[in-house]
Write a structure and sequence with these properties.
CATH superfamily: Dimeric alpha+beta barrel
CATH topology: Alpha-Beta Plaits
Mean pLDDT: 89
Strand content: 25-35%
Number of domains: 1
Helix content: 25-40%
CATH architecture: 2-Layer Sandwich
């Protein structure tokens, strides 16, 4: 089964936010990069892409045929999606195990594991 792992970055430090990133030790910064490199080389993983911070988003809705846009996400920053990957795994437990290895999970974010519909 294929699972999408949605990385809810929350207020987890990323290199895009130099102030927050600098609060991590150099060792932790290197560990984050190493963990993502290792995850992306895991059998069954199709790496996704990291997203720019939520404040760069534009949300689009259509109401009564009119396209409406607002700056930023509708969700709170703690819930904002920061990236994703697809993992082909034997079962949900394997997908949860991979999700637990994603640095955002230990640094204040969360990983949503969701099975994909396969046709």
């Amino acid at each position: 089964m294929k699972y999408i792992l949605l990385i809810h970055q929350g207020d987890t430090p990323t290199p895009y936010d130099q102030e927050a990133w600098s609060r991590l030790s150099e060792e932790e910064q290197k560990r984050v990069f190493a963990d993502y490199a290792e995850i992306n080389q895991t059998a069954g993983v199709s790496p996704g892409l990291q997203m720019q911070p939520p404040e760069t988003a534009t949300t689009v809705r259509v109401k009564d045929g009119e396209t409406l846009t607002t700056d930023g996400p509708f969700a709170s920053v703690k819930e904002a999606l920061g990236g994703w990957l697809v993992f082909e795994a034997d079962d949900l437990d394997a997908a949860i195990g991979l999700a637990a290895r994603i640095p955002a999970a230990r640094l204040g974010g969360a990983i949503e594991v969701r099975p994909l519909v396969e046709s």
